[in-house]
Amino acid sequence: MNKDSAAGFGIGLLAGVVAGLAVGLLFAPQSGRETRQLIRDRAGNVYEKVGDVVDSAKERVAHIRGRRGAGEEVAEEV
To answer: How many domains does the chain have?
Structure first.
């Protein structure tokens, strides 16, 4: 994943979260207190999901760097 596609993914993810929260607030059938609690819960879930995506991206980068390093070693031997 290159920097542009990673940045685009992050921006898209953030835009989707914001849009989802806005629609949820506009059509919320519950009281303000219940809505605020729901927002806190969902924000926590989003935070966890973003953390998972970041961790996954870090693992992919480390894997790619490892493969690149192995390729450089092979190239040096040849």
So the answer is: 1
